[in-house]
Structures are given as C-alpha cells and as structure tokens.
Amino acid sequence: MFPSNNLGDLIDLSKDLSKTAIIDTSTNYRYSFKLVHDLANAVANGLQAKGYQPQDRIAILAENSIDFVTTYLGILKLGAVVVLVNVKLPQSQINDILIDSNVKLIFADTIIETTIPVINFKTDFKDFLINEDFTSHPVNDEVAIILYTSGSTGAFKGVAITHKNHKWILDQKAKWRYASQLRKLVAAPMYHMNGLSNVEMTLSGYSTTILMPKFEPKAFVSSIQQYRVNYISSVPSMIASAINETELLATLDVSSLKMIAMGSAPVSQALFEKIKLNFPNVIVRNGYGTTELGPGLFGPNHPDSLPIPDLSVGYPMAGLECRLVDGILEIKSPAMMANYTNATNTQLTDDGFFITNDFFEVDEHGFYFFRGRADDMFKSGGNTIFPAQIELALESHPLIMTAAVVGIEDDIKGIKPYAFVVLKKDAITSSQTSGELKQFVATKFPLSHCPREIWFLEEMPVNGVNKLDKTKLSSMAKKLLYKA
C-alpha cells in the first residue's frame, strides 16, 4: 500500500526496493526504487532546510532526467506545488508563466534569465541534497501540480491539479495486473501530462521506466533492443518518425516489444497499419486524456469484455461520466483539475462536465473514437472542413508517411485548405507527385475539400511536447504562397 495520499509517495515501500525503477539512457545508470525514494527525500530535506514550505510554488525547467523525477517527487513530499515549464518556450513566455504561478524557486538544467533563485542540476544540485529520511507532508485536496497548456488557442493556461484528484487515476492504472512486468520506454517530455503520467504510472505500478532525455528517432528505436523494452508510450508523431527509420529497424531485434500506446493526438488508420507492419506481434493502443481531466481516461474495460476496435480509444474508465453534445466530448472525472490559474472560462457546464472541444464518435458497443479538435475545423466557401479527415485520406496513400492540413485565409472562399506531407523513406519524389496526390484526394472528397497545394517536407515540425506544430505549418504555407 502507498505510504500516504501525497503524490510524492508513489513508491510502494512494502515491495522489494532493490528492483530497478528507472534507467536513465543518457548515462545508462540503473536507479533502484530505494535510490529514487532516498533521492526524493534528499530533495525534500534540502528544500525544507532552505526555508521552503508547503504550497510554495517551485518550478522545474528541464529535459527528462533522474534529477527531474526525484526533484518532482521531493517537491511534492514537502507539500509544495510543482510548476512544470516547457523548456522549448521563448524566454518571454517562460517569464510570463513564472510570474503567473508565483514561483519562488526554479530547478533547471540550463541557464535562464530570471531574478528568481535557481538550482542548476548540473552545478548546484548535489550540494543542495540532504540525505536523510523525510516524512511527507499530509495532503488531500491541496494543489500538487501546475501544468501549462495552450491547447489549440495559443493562449497558455495554468492547470492546477490536486494530490487527491491526480492520485485517483494513477491508482486505477497501478491496479493493472501486468503493471509490474512493464519495461516502458518514455521519451515524451515530463513537463507534459503524457510523459509525466507515464513515469508516475511505472513508479506506482512497480515497473521499470527507460527514460530518454528527449525524443530522437534513431536512439528511440535502438533503445527497444538495448533495454528489452516491452511497452512504448508516445504521441503519434513520434511513432511515425520512429517507424520511418526502416533501415535501422531492419537490423534490430525488437521481439521484446509487446505494446505501443499512443495519445495526445488522433491516430490514422494508415499509421496504425504501418505500425502493425513493422511490429506484427505488438498490441497497438490509441489512448485519450487531457491535462485538465487526467491521462488514459479510456481503456479495455468493457462490461462485456469486448476487444477494443482498431483506432478506438476504448471504453470509459469506471468512475467517468461521458456524453457527446453536437459531436463534442464532455466528461465529468474524479481526476478533473481544481481550476485554471489564469483563465475565468473553465470550460465547465452548469452540471459540472468539462467541454473537451474534441470531436468523438461512439459505436454500438460504447467504444469511443477520437476524430480531431473542434478548433481545427474551418469553413471554405460555406463548406465545413475537418483537416483530420483529409489527413487520414492522404496518409492512406502508399507513398505518404504523415500528412498535415492547414487552412489559409482567402479573399473569395474565406479559407482554403493546403497540405504538407512527409514521404516514406523509400518513396521517390517526382514533379508529378503533387498533382497525383491532389487527384488522389479528389477521389475521396469534393473539390472544395482538396488541398490547393501539397508541399513536401523531410519531417514535420513539432512543438515542445512532440505534437504537430500547425502554427508553424500555417506560417510556412503563407510564405510559400505569398513569397514573404
């Protein structure tokens, strides 16, 4: 059983703590559950010795590392609030977040411009630690974490999450009967819910995390063989890049891999099939969660034990209430955030459901299918266009690895669709390919939905959490169109 309701106490101290909890791929060092627990206590002691108190806001601004993990747990043990900041943001936005969350101390792995005290993981951290036992501060409904999300709006919102609410969903995951057998590869950043929750789940589930500092396709696929990974957690864009390393994959023994789980974005049928082609014996799962509601809200828990259909995110977890309103998913979850730090619109209905702004469909058995963001939808000459549908059509083409569709302003139509694609590594580009792809889309959609231009990229731009960066693609499209 867990020592307390404090999120810093995810490690079950009744287990054999000599088992490897985390392998840091940057150093290849193996950290036992005991060592992770002791290091987290050392952080909590160090904070207390410097006068920091429960509910003080303390930020982590760093890439994935063992120091990140133990500092995260140590801050929580103290009863302070962890503020997680995307390291890839511009300095001005980082400063805005630090001000908004009233941060009193920063842990960082790089030099940052700030008047707030900083403990640098590379230079100051070891001297800061105090290696003694620590009794975690008792908590319940107090805020534990603040994560910043921009969704699709570009405006950063601070999502405040309590110990009680976040621990509820982690406890559900820890009950999975295969949890302790996992060797999970995590390269998604821990300043995002996807990477953070997966590390938390492996700690609470008594399994092993293979932790990468950041995603790099060749290192990612090589790690499967090197560390005998049996479970991968990622976002679709990461997996698409990884399986495009066809030459490297052909040289590796990836037979240990049993499951690939993806979340944070829709998964296309084409990507699903490409994964199965490269990993024929692997179970592929499409997950869904949000920063505001919690990770992994759906799963293989159908009351009639029916298998999850391809591309479905699964059946709602016990304890959730879900409904579709005009195709948009609304959820009431025990893991729901406490509030936004800087936004009055909480996206809550009068009866307490959170409006996700995500389009879903439900089949006759109650399985949910994520179809895309409502924010992405636009109208062209009166026609409603959902970019995700056109992207799925493009990705069904045998030459295409990934596709992205953006809407660009037009004086006549209002907005017109344009597309970017990444070809498979063994595909050959010709001057006719763009025209052929337009004709291919025209066989599946009305001409109003067909991209006016299709441009080729070697790789898709992604943001700090490895999601497709459509803001950057829109800017690129405008430059190509107007030669700006």
Question: How would you concisely characterize the structure shown here?
Answer:
This protein has 484 residues and is of the alpha/beta class. The chain is 28% helix and 25% strand. The longest helix is centred in the N-terminal third of the chain and has 17 residues, at 33-49.
Characterization of the model:
By secondary structure, the protein is of the alpha/beta class. The chain has 2 domains: 7-360, Rossmann fold; 377-482, ANL, C-terminal domain (GMP Synthetase, Chain A, domain 3, 2-Layer Sandwich), CATH 3.30.300. It has helices at 33-49, 66-78, 91-100, 125-128, 163-174, 193-204, 217-226, 236-243, 246-251, 269-278, 387-395, 433-442, 470-482; strands at residues 20-24, 29-32, 57-61, 81-84, 103-108, 118-120, 143-149, 157-162, 183-186, 208-211, 231-234, 259-262, 283-286, 298-299, 315-316, 321-325, 328-332, 339-340, 354-362, 368-373, 378-380, 383-385, 400-410, 414-423, 454-457. Strands 2-1-10-9-11-12-13 form a 7-stranded mixed sheet, with helices on both faces. Strands 6-5-3-4-7-8-18 form a 7-stranded mixed sheet, with helices on both faces. Helix 1 packs across helix 2 (66-78). The protein is globular, with a radius of gyration of 23 Å. The model has no long low-confidence stretch (mean pLDDT 88).
